[in-house]
Recover the amino acids of this structure.
């Protein structure tokens, strides 16, 4: 692992943001100079290190170990190129080692200096044990006898060389593992120190975090990867239960996913962003909580949360989902990359699964692999026959040349237990068994047989297995293809290589897309600002709230005229049918006008106590609603040329919703009841103006009701003789019958104009007999009674109208009598009604302007606030190409900016 080996470029990238290292970079040129250059500037270095002794110890140790650990490349080169060049390189390296006596000046703590000296000495001793001359001596005959590979000496010496090379590899591997463990602790200390410094100032996102956010943006922009999102990510695919998720967990160094015995657990894509950090933690994209992966309790909570999120993404009736679950895992020594874990490929659908589950998984996997820059991490179960694999054929179809595929063979320990053929396993790792091609082939172990095994115990088991494995002990040159550590390093290197190769192309693609969208906007919407849904909503918010302000500018006269008209329309039916006519009919029955006032007083008081206040408030609310909508429509018509038509649907919906929610203030009801009762008790008309108003109101009411009654009666009896002759109209049989009844009833009223509104039984029988004698057909009593109702009603309205016209001129006579004469009963009643309507309208108008408008304004704000948080409503009410074009343009701009920032950060790191 290059980070654990502590190569100079990695060390410099970790420490380059620290101010104290700037001077060290200036003087020492860490990436290009040897340790001897540091000694030439010891005075400046000592001055720097005196400011931070802890940093100086860590820095010096890392630099020394970095130089020492170059030996792994030399050892591998010696195995391939021959012992002579290795011996020379070793001698040159040994001679170039610096004098370490200066460590005593740099490290006051002798324990640290002794540790470094001891580590170096142990490595040099190990290297001295290697007999380079013997290797040269043994390898040279092999080369010279290559033409006769069947000779006994060839085979014997080849076996000896292979055995010695394996022993060298094992010895060197142990030394590396020992140093890597020490290096990991030092790395953690450095990261903690860096993290502390970063917290002291503005936190800057890491490169991999920037890339992960960029992928999230692209995923929202184009989830199908068909046109835009071609940035690399590592796609982890494999057959179900092939160890696919376990490989990802080994790379992340934590058991972060739920698991089941043979059951499909991965039901949705899980995007895992791996990055380096001082603490081993995991965090979901949409959550601020960090799970400590070193604690088993929090690991269990994390797995449960992943399982819950997967179930929430799956809709009813489906078994898998395309919705991505994004999480970040940080920890010391983690390779930086982005992996996507997909549901495993299944061969058949079992009970409880949706019928289309198999096809949905294949379509999802194909869609992710279709990204031309996605790295396909193809997981193959090494414990089963290769011919049973489903995933390899699918990968071969998508990536036939293997330019972005890495094959991972899992469960090789089980393959050894099952007495697998070593040649067959080696053929898989060499790429000669499968028809599919790949960039690399790896063998890993991701478990010991129990779900509760820790990652560290599995890693130890894996390293021990590959050291002692019978399947791999005779294989030369494949050590770098074993263990998940080597796999993660190779995948990370491939990932960042592809990122550097494709990110510029992706940025150019978005530049072209942005240009096309901007051109479309200029051509189609040149007069408008580029406002997205949120900005358009805020614009509509201001216009809607201004409508309430405009409503407050309505004059008092307009309010009261509207309220007067609507109040009378709302109560006129009750006044005529339940108060005026019953009281008037009683006068005809009793021939006493005193009974009129008595009945009117009783009915009006009862009505004012029970129904009138609530009825008046409902009318006032209807007037407010109607006035608001009328003014809104008028204002829109006046501003039609300058208004934004795309906002009309939204504004109308907001106003309707606010008006629906609005209710009149409760305490206004009781106040209005008291005022109306007091007003109706006053029947004295004090001046001629009020007298004329009441008289005219009475006359208009009687004329209106007489007209309505005439219309109903005409509809009942049919056209008149005049209309029949001149307009060629005809009557139905029923209308003719009713017309005959009407004629008899009018004769009855003509003979007795003061007849009561009731028709006695004898009179009904008499009229029925008369009609039967004249027309020869019987007449029903119900028909006579229904016709009588309208005939008498018209008769009464005619008489009342004549009296009202006469009374209108008698104000002075009424004034001289002080209102004691009873013949003015009807005009007094309508005066009381008129005054009650006027006072009620005034009270309602004050309530509207002083209270209800403010409450309506508040409710409009509440509706707007609710709608502003509901994207579904905004998308429904704000539609059209103008809106979608702006959103696409803004999204492309945002992605382009993130791409440019990422490219800039990537270039700085490089």
């Amino acid at each position: 692992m290059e980070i654990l080996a502590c190569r100079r470029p990695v060390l410099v990238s970790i420490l380059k943001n620290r101010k104290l290292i700037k001077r060290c970079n200036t003087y020492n040129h860490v990436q290009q100079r040897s340790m001897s250059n540091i000694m030439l500037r010891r005075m400046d270095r000592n001055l720097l290190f005196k400011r931070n002794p802890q940093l100086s110890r860590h820095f010096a140790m890392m630099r020394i170990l970095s130089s020492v650990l170059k030996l792994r490349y030399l050892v591998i080169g010696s195995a391939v190129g021959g012992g002579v060049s290795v011996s020379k390189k070793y001698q040159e390296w040994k001679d170039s080692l610096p004098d370490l006596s200066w460590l005593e000046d740099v490290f006051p703590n002798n324990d640290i200096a002794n540790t470094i000296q001891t580590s170096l000495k142990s490595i040099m001793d190990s290297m001295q044990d290697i007999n380079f001359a013997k290797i040269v001596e043994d390898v040279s005959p092999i080369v010279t006898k290559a033409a006769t590979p069947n000779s006994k000496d060839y085979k014997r010496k080849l076996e000896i060389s292979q055995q010695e090379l394996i022993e060298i590899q094992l010895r060197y591997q142990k030394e590396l593992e020992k140093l890597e463990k020490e290096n990991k602790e030092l790395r953690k200390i450095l990261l903690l120190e860096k993290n502390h410094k970063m917290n002291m100032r503005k936190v800057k996102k890491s490169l991999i975090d920037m890339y992960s956010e960029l992928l999230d943006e692209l995923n929202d922009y184009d989830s199908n990867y068909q046109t835009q999102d071609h940035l690399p990510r590592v796609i982890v695919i494999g057959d179900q239960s092939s160890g696919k998720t376990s490989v990802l967990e080994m790379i992340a160094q934590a058991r972060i996913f739920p698991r089941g015995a043979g059951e499909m657990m991965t039901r949705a894509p899980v995007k895992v962003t791996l990055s380096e950090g001082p603490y081993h933690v995991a965090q979901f994209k949409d959550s601020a909580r960090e799970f400590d992966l070193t604690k088993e309790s929090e690991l269990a909570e994390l797995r449960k949360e992943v399982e819950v999120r997967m179930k929430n993404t799956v809709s009813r009736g489906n078994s898998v989902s395309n919705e991505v679950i994004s999480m970040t895992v940080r920890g010391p020594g983690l390779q930086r990359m982005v992996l996507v874990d997909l549901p495993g490929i299944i061969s058949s659908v079992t009970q409880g699964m949706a019928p289309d589950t198999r096809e949905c998984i294949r379509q999802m996997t194909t869609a992710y692999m279709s990204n031309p820059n996605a790295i396909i991490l193809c997981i193959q179960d090494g414990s089963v026959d290769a011919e049973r694999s489903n995933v390899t054929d699918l990968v071969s179809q998508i990536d036939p040349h293997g330019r972005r595929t890495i094959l991972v063979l899992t469960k090789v320990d089980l393959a050894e237990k099952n007495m697998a053929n070593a040649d067959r396993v080696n053929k898989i790792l060499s790429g000669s068994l499968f028809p599919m091609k790949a960039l690399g082939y790896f063998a890993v172990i991701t478990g010991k047989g129990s779900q509760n095994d820790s990652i560290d115990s599995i890693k130890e088991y894996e390293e021990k297995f590959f050291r002692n494995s019978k399947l791999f002990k005779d294989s030369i040159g494949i050590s770098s293809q074993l263990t998940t550590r080597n796999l993660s390093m190779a995948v990370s290197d491939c990932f960042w290589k592809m990122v550097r190769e494709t990110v510029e192309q992706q940025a150019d693609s978005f530049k072209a897309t942005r240009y096309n969208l901007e051109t479309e906007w200029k051509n189609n919407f040149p007069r408008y600002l580029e406002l997205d849904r949120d900005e358009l909503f805020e614009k509509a918010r201001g216009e809607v709230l201004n409508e309430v302000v405009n409503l407050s500018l309505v004059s008092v006269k307009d309010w009261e005229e509207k309220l007067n008209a609507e109040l009378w329309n709302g109560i006129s039916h009750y006044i005529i049918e339940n108060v005026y006519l019953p009281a008037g009919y009683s006068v005809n029955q009793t021939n006493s006008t005193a009974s009129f006032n008595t009945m009117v007083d009783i009915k009006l008081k009862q009505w004012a106590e029970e129904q009138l206040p609530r009825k008046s408030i409902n009318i006032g609310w209807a007037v407010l609603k109607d006035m608001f909508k009328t003014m809104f429509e008028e204002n829109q018509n006046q501003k039609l040329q300058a208004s934004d038509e795309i906002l009309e649907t939204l504004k109308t919906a907001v106003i309707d919703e606010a008006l629906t929610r609005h209710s009149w203030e409760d305490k206004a009801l009781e106040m209005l009841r008291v005022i109306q009762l007091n007003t109706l008790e006053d029947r004295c008309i004090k001046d001629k103006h009020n007298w004329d108003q009441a008289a005219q109101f009475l006359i208009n009411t009687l004329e209106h009701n007489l007209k309505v009654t005439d219309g109903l009666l005409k509809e009942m009896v049919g056209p008149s003789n005049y209309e029949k002759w001149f307009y060629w109209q005809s009557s139905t049989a029923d209308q003719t019958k009713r017309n005959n009844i009407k004629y008899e009833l009018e004769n009855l009223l003509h003979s007795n104009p003061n007849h009561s509104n009731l028709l006695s039984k004898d009179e009904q029988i008499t009229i029925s007999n008369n009609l039967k004698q004249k027309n020869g057909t019987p007449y029903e009593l119900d028909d006579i009674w229904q016709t009588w109702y309208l005939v008498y009603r018209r008769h009464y309205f005619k008489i009342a109208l004549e009296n009202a016209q006469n009374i209108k001129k008698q104000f002075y006579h009424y004034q001289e009598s002080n209102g004691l004469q009873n013949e003015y009963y009807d005009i007094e009643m309508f005066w009381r009604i008129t005054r009650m309507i006027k006072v009620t309208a005034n009270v309602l108008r004050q309530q509207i302007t002083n209270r209800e408008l403010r409450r309506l304004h508040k409710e409009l704000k509440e509706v707007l606030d609710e709608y502003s948080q509901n994207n579904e409503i905004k998308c429904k009410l704000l539609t059209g190409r103008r809106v979608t074009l702006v959103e696409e343009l803004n999204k492309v701009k945002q992605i382009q900016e993130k791409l440019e920032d990422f490219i800039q950060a990537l270039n700085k790191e490089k």
User: Anything to note?
Assistant: The longest strand covers residues 270-276. The CA atoms of residues 291 and 724 lie 94 Å apart. The two ends are 19 Å apart (CA to CA). The mean pLDDT is 76.
